[in-house]
Amino acid sequence: MNSSQGFDETYDIVVVGFGAAGAAAAITACDAGASVVLVEKSPEHCHTPSTRMSGGMVMTVTDVDAGARYLDVCASGMVPFDVSHAWAERAAGLMEWFDDVIGGLDMVASAGAEHPGFEGAEAIVAVQPGGVAERLAAAAGAGPRFFEGLAAAVARREIPIRWDTAASRLVQDADGRVIGLSATQSGQLIALGARKGAVLACGGYEFDEDLKRDHLRVYPVHFYGNPNNTGDGVRMAAGAGASMWHMNQMIGRAIGHFDYDGQPLNFIIGIDPPGYVICDRAGDRFANEHNQALLRHDFYYDLLAYDPATNSHPRVPCYWFFDESRRQAGPLTYAHFGAVAVGLYDWSDDNSAEIEQGWIATGDTITEAAIAAGMTGEAAHQAASTVAAYNQSCGNGEPDPWGRPADTMVPIDEPPYYCVVLWPGGSNTTGGPRRDRHGRILDAFGNPISGLYGAGELGQASGLLYPSDGSNLSEALCFGQIAVEHALKREQN
């Protein structure tokens, strides 16, 4: 250990977490001529950042002011406008950054705003490597391909990576400035100094049950992002005096949560193609299932109902019913998202292995499938009545009471029948240490904690509604750059 400073090694910038935010931060520091190290909790051979598990989409902005207004509407007052504006301003330059700094990604427009009726939505464009068609045809998927591009850019710059190193506490001087951190590397305690700043880019608290129970709007909640996101950054920042914001927020939808060799494993679920019906615990429909089929993130809000009379959440879990035609149509999850994309599990093409494992309940009738999935007898019979009523309404010309488009009203009438238990969940939490427009983490009085920055899922600069596909990666890349640029300004150090 360096006796003069108390650190084993010292760098200008120390970045915690090697995902999109960490990569952007490290690359920005290196290209500015600063010394930088990436501190990554995972061992190199099983590195599963949420970026690799994503669809590889990145939100960009074509008009800064319009984009900022749109982000502000989606934030619903949870994020100051100047923070949203800083995000939009940087997102407007991401395409140039991909070409000039990363290279080789061939980012192509593939989607727009998730809420096209909001002011400024026309300025939102999501891009991904090769576009949608190539993504769906590529075995590797766009998420892994996108992260490989970032990782290659890090490798070309010979940025050191401390693998298998779990950061645990920030080190502050007598004035409260963050000057480094302590971590455990392969079982050994080490200390790394940060002359200019430390950037927390280590993800959210998707796999910390206490934090989820205490802060999210419903419990249990399950996530298909990086299983190493256990709230380390929340605790580190809190230990340094950070204020927290929107800890009750997450990027959600209904997902599958299963036991695999004694360990939980979560999956993004694709209910398409029709027909499909999702029922609550009483066996009744409760929302427009087409939003789940579109993988819209606001379907999560349909799952949050609470009944004080029974002290329960009647839609946690909920139950998805389908028939043999859907079972044969293809896997219930996606090869380019989540656990399958990074090799944690290989879902069978015809879903037969998952039926064998009990993840997909089956029966000769809807009632039998519902009981096999864990519904009570009364609820199972009600679910059968609900599906029968749905079948009768298909093609009768009457509008669906929950707003389903007519072309999605396909009968569930080809036995055997199936039921999958679905839970509120998603890719990531977004709460964490409060930030300003420079990525500085703020204390309980709104003052910056000198030398401490945040980027990515940890305290993400998004609020009530997810702006568009690729918002997570966009925010991570933008604030990874913003944070380091501010930390390296001479007048600030």
State the total count of DSSP E strands: 20
What is the percent of helical residues? 25-40%
C-alpha Rg (nearest Å): 23 Å
The largest β sheet comes out as: 8 strands, mixed
Globular, elongated, flat, extended or rod-shaped: what is the shape? elongated
The number of helical runs is 16
Describe this structure in words.
The chain has 493 residues and is α+β, with helices and mostly antiparallel strands. It is built from 16 helices and 20 strands. It has helices at 20-31, 50-53, 64-75, 81-91, 94-102, 131-137, 142-156, 209-215, 232-239, 290-293, 324-329, 338-341, 352-356, 366-372, 377-393, 471-487, and strands at residues 9-16, 36-39, 58-61, 107-111, 124-129, 161-162, 165-172, 178-185, 188-200, 222-223, 244-245, 250-260, 263-268, 277-279, 318-323, 361-363, 417-429, 432-433, 440-442, 448-454. Strands 1, 2, 6, 7, 8, 9, 19 and 20 form an eight-stranded mixed beta sheet that branches. Strand 1 (9-16), helix 1 and strand 2 (36-39) form a beta-alpha-beta unit. The protein is elongated, with a radius of gyration of 23 Å. The two termini are 25 Å apart. The relative contact order is 0.19. The model is unreliable at 131-140 (pLDDT under 50).
Which descriptors would you attach to this protein?
8-stranded mixed sheet; 7-stranded mixed sheet; 29% helix; alpha+beta; 493 residues; 16 helices; 24% strand
Question: Secondary structure elements and their pairing?
Answer:
Blueprint: E1 9-16, H1 20-31, E2 36-39, H2 50-53, E3 58-61, H3 64-75, H4 81-91, H5 94-102, E4 107-111, E5 124-129, H6 131-137, H7 142-156, E6 161-162, E7 165-172, E8 178-185, E9 188-200, H8 209-215, E10 222-223, H9 232-239, E11 244-245, E12 250-260, E13 263-268, E14 277-279, H10 290-293, E15 318-323, H11 324-329, H12 338-341, H13 352-356, E16 361-363, H14 366-372, H15 377-393, E17 417-429, E18 432-433, E19 440-442, E20 448-454, H16 471-487
Parallel strand pairs: 1-2, 1-9, 2-6, 9-20, 10-17
Antiparallel strand pairs: 3-5, 4-5, 7-8, 8-9, 11-18, 12-13, 12-17, 14-15, 15-17, 16-17, 19-20
Helix pairs in contact: 1-7, 1-16, 3-4, 14-15
